[in-house]
Design a protein that fits this description.
homodimer; 307 residues; alpha/beta; Rossmann fold; N-(1-d-carboxylethyl)-l-norvaline Dehydrogenase, domain 2; three-stranded mixed beta sheet; 9 strands; 53% helix; elongated
Chain lengths: 307, 307
């Protein structure tokens, strides 16, 4: 931290928050509980109402959020939403005073994070890209992993805020590095999920008792978070979203686009994207990522629901 | 357990052991340390010498092992070795007295396990298929996962012996079910390893600090045994075998052959097999499974060794 900077406290820092979906609402609530004065905007006002009831101020666009804030957090949907929210006509940067900071926690494009950082710097503001993993449960429990790119001193200065939302908070490098790290995370999950689903289908077709199989394979070299958490849901026929397939398809698209730009062939991730596109085509874009199993089951005409 | 059966003890049961490679030698040693009289055979006698020095008897072929034993364990290389060792001219079944038991702990074909079980039953003997996971470390520490198929009462009768070698010992069903369960295990590892290697290559090309990335992604939804154990080795350029690629290619071949027989398409496993064949073609058949990264690196002309 720059020793001339004052430590961030609820007394000296006004927070702005844009994006109050399942993740954002929980994360913002942690800052408010710590005493931070907060100004909100969200595309659908109804989703922000519980935070307004807690005392957050409501304004009509991102620029007005920025005008009332020292640090503005965003966690919205797709890269185009990020761009509009931060760089658009009524966007955050148009309202943010010099010295202000933008923290985009949406999972978005590394290249866009760099563009935002440059635009912020041109206005004597700072920007961090800080996507998260941990899902709704991690957001509620302030147990997220937060992967941060941007100016290192700004990362250190904002640590007291990140610490209210996450448990694993890691600086990853210059602008875009947080997003790149999140892509690493998603590549691991995407390809690993193919393995979980194919393994269960194999066991099912072989006539095994899958609960018993999981006891044999979960604790050793085949073990993973996905196996421990998603296989039991699949055995119950539970396809409820922890994370929407349509959002996962967005993330895989970003990773493959970046990989193409870097001249990197990722055959496993490419297969995962194709299988997830098939899963969505079969009506599961709003199901959880574990519903990939249903596309693989349909591919071989396996009646998984009889499981 | 059949209440008329006597519990297995070193006083009433003679053990035979065939296959004293890295895994087999450790597993056999645990039985000997518990006091079991043991008769050995191995294709390469030198590898059995430490156990002979501990007091095991040496004979010249599997039939002679069987003639001196009540229960014969085998853990050899490929399915053809299993077939030769158990069903061949000087094989175990030609020497085993009625009432004897065969336990094949090789990772092998489910169909062959069924053939062995039938041949054993025809001689009033029993057979269990009991492949393991946990590698050399698990074998040394008696911490293996042992996945057992065959007659359930025989599984229960032999539990005192399995408990000397493993920590997770699970009955999986009739003959072949232990092998099928091991295939589930290998499908998970194979496809998961693609994800680990692609994720590291992505992060490397993006210029990230991979140690720092692992801190962000290892503990959450992207976490796995492979990531925690293999990624650090890859960052050090360590391709030493915990498990040989040539053996993994054997296992994937068995799983894909069984899947084909069951009319099950496994695109992820098929891709893994192709990538591992490429890794072997590049001179890494005796490297550890993590060396898959090198084939993916070569595919995109990435100079990973500069990492």
């Amino acid at each position: 931290m720059n020793p001339t900077q004052t430590e961030i406290t609820p007394e000296n820092t006004r927070i702005g928050w844009i994006g109050t979906g399942v993740m954002g609402a929980s994360m913002c609530r942690h800052l408010m509980h710590a005493g931070y004065q907060t100004t909100l905007f969200n595309r659908t006002k109804a989703k922000a109402q519980p935070l307004i009831d807690l005392g957050a101020g409501w304004v009509d666009n991102p620029a007005q959020v920025a005008a009332a804030s020292d640090i503005v957090f965003t966690i919205v949907g797709f890269p185009n939403d990020v761009k509009q929210t931060l760089l658009g006509d009524d966007g955050v940067l148009s309202g943010l005073a010099a010295g202000g900071t933008i923290v985009d926690m949406t999972t978005s494009q590394p290249a866009l994070a760099q563009e935002i950082a440059a635009a912020a710097a041109a206005k004597n503001c700072s920007a961090l890209d800080a996507p998260v993993s941990g899902g709704d449960v991690g957001a509620r429990g302030a147990a997220l992993s937060i992967m941060v790119g941007g100016p290192k001193d700004e990362f250190h200065r904002l640590l007291p805020l990140f610490s209210l939302m996450g448990r694993t908070i890691q600086y990853q490098g210059l602008a875009g590095s947080g997003q790149h790290t999140k892509m690493v995370n998603q590549i691991l999950i995407a390809t690993g999920m193919i393995g979980v689903c194919e393994a269960l289908l194999y066991g099912f077709k072989a006539g095994l008792n899958l609960e018993s199989v999981l006891k044999s394979v979960s604790a050793g070299a085949a073990g993973s978070w996905s196996l421990s958490n998603m296989a039991p849901r699949l055995l119950k026929g539970d396809y409820q979203p922890g994370f929407f397939i349509e959002h996962f398809i967005k993330d895989m698209g970003i990773a493959l686009e970046e990989a193409k730009r870097m001249n990197l062939s990722l055959p496993g991730l490419s297969l995962a994207e194709q299988l997830y596109l098939a899963t969505a085509a079969q009506g599961h874009s709003k199901s959880g990522t574990q519903a990939l199993l249903l596309a693989l089951a349909k591919l071989s005409n396996v009646d998984w629901k009889e499981n």
